[in-house]
Amino acid sequence: MTRNSSIAILGGNGALGSAIATALLARGVVEAGALWISSRSGTAGPLTGTGVRTTSQAQEAACACGTVILAVPPAQAGALGIAAADALVISVMAGVPRSRLAALAGAGRVVRAMSSPAAATHRAFSPWFAPDLGAADKARTDRILSACGLADEVTEEAHIDLFTGITGPIPGFVAYLAQCFADHATARGVAPDVANRAARQLFLASGEALAASDLPPAAHVQAMIDYAGTTAAGLRAMQASPLAAAIAEGVEAAVARAQQMGRG
Q1: Residue range 171-262, CATH number
Q2: Does the annotation flag 15 for ligand binding?
Q3: pLDDT per position as a tens digit, 122-163
Q4: What is its main location (predicted)?
């Protein structure tokens, strides 16, 4: 075990930090003894008993590890108070710009990324931005974030802000759409428990079908329209409605809120 192979997760007992830690351990990216969890309580939370190292001192964890993942709530970013000049710093804090991250962590090798608690089951999408990193740092970043699910390097920092408005809120957006369908069925006389079971199962099947296909969502939509059945009738009505604009408005509202939280 060397310092370069060790990873510290600041805020590692929170929902996002512990999900990333779970993914890294499960995929063998880091051994338990080389994974540091830093939290205000000094406990490992969901990772208690796994053999990870814990501390309440963020600087202790930062000094011990070659890679430091910042997973504290963005509102607490200003209180990080660490110096990690010789570490690779990967932030998954919503809305905190890369320039501020470098100052907060006292670091020169900084990655701005986004992920979600779905990392625990390797189902997160984690975009990242770090155009000036060397090849070795980029490979390490990709390996860490790919353990959480799918990861992609993006070419503009603004894309991270956009994905912040998509990555976190999409489960809520999907839940709202499911609610709308369930509410409609209930209003037509279907028992609420049946409507809710149907919505959950149908959204599960639809998500799995999209994930298993290499085709973009638009291709699936067009194929259903071309079939000219009941789905096509519903889709044409939705395309003629303000639904797409309302979804875009929701995404932009989430982006604006993330930027507000991250800029302190």
Answers
A1: 1.10.3730.10
A2: yes
A3: 999 999 999 999 999 999 999 999 999 999 999 999 999 999
A4: cytoplasm
